[in-house]
Specification:
This protein is an alpha/beta fold and 265 residues long. It folds into two domains: 186 residues, Rossmann fold (3-Layer(aba) Sandwich); 65 residues, no CATH class. It contains nine helices and ten strands. Strands 6-7-8-3-9-10 form a six-stranded mixed β-sheet, with helices on both faces. The longest helix is centred in the middle third of the chain and has 18 residues.
Length: 265
């Protein structure tokens, strides 16, 4: 449902952030994208979201080449404090994008309350963002995306600004809502463990100019647990493999694994 072909981006000062990125994402898949700092992950996300026009290549969503911001896509950013309107209630923050769907006030309110309930904030609708903790504010941002019912959800370092316990809670929330809605999700993260824990597949980018150096299938049980899953040999092995790739292990550079190969193969 998402196809990225030969994507390249060079900024005005001549800095080349991305070079010939190719990636396909199937409907209902949760794909994690990791790489060294400055490898172009956020640039890639902005190009996919239609917020930035790449200098080369193309992005297609549902077989339609993107020429702007698509109407069936939602984005959750890292900085939740700047993505929510402090003068609007939580419920109104969640329902605001639904105006693009032409929903009336009653329909918007109903969808917002359902989305808030799905992220465990059923009683927070009348509060304001500044009255909530950081983790709760990020739940509001996720609820806003869910209420919009997008075909594709992009998440750019969404849990990078919260504490470790809250991060784990939000990872489990992501898996839960993905399981309930069957949504296609593309997650950019710096956290190697997180990329393996939540993903069906981990995409590793090289240092800038970023390109795909590995596609690693995540062969873990669908039901995941923060303690039990992370103790599994398959988890330990795969997170080590991703770590080696990010750190530039020359003996593994250029490896592309198909869905049928093991990470060690």
């Amino acid at each position: 449902m998402l196809e990225i072909k030969n994507l390249t981006h060079v900024y005005g000062d001549g800095y080349k952030a991305l070079d010939d990125v190719n990636l396909s994402v199937k409907a209902g898949e949760l794909v994690s994208i990791v790489g060294p700092s400055g490898c172009g992950k956020s640039t890639l996300m902005r190009c996919i979201a239609g917020l930035q026009r790449p200098t080369g290549g193309e992005v297609s969503l549902d077989d339609t080449r993107l020429e702007g911001v698509p109407g069936n896509l939602a984005v959750v950013f890292q900085d939740y404090s700047r993505s929510l309107f402090p003068w609007l209630t939580v419920r109104d923050n969640v329902s605001l994008p639904l105006r693009r769907h032409g929903k009336n006030r009653h329909e918007r309110r109903k969808a917002a309350l359902e989305a808030l309930e799905s992220v465990g904030l059923a009683d927070a609708g009348q509060k304001y963002p500044w009255q909530l903790s950081g983790g709760m504010q990020q739940r509001v941002a996720i609820a806003r995306a869910l209420a919009y019912r997008p075909s594709l959800l992009l998440m750019d370092e969404p849990f990078g600004s919260v504490d470790a316990q809250t991060r784990e809670d939000l990872e489990d929330l992501l898996l839960r809502v993905r399981g309930n809605d069957g949504m296609t999700i593309l997650l950019v993260t710096h956290d190697i463990d997180e990329s393996v824990y939540v993903g069906d597949r981990v995409i590793v980018l090289t240092t800038a100019p970023g390109h795909v150096c590995a596609e690693l299938p995540v062969d873990l049980p669908a039901e995941r647990d923060q303690v039990a899953t992370r103790e599994l040999p398959a988890f330990v092995h795969l997170r080590a493999e991703v770590g080696r790739l990010i750190r530039g292990d020359q003996s593994r550079r250029g490896v592309r694994l198909s869905a049928g190969e093991s990470p060690s193969g």
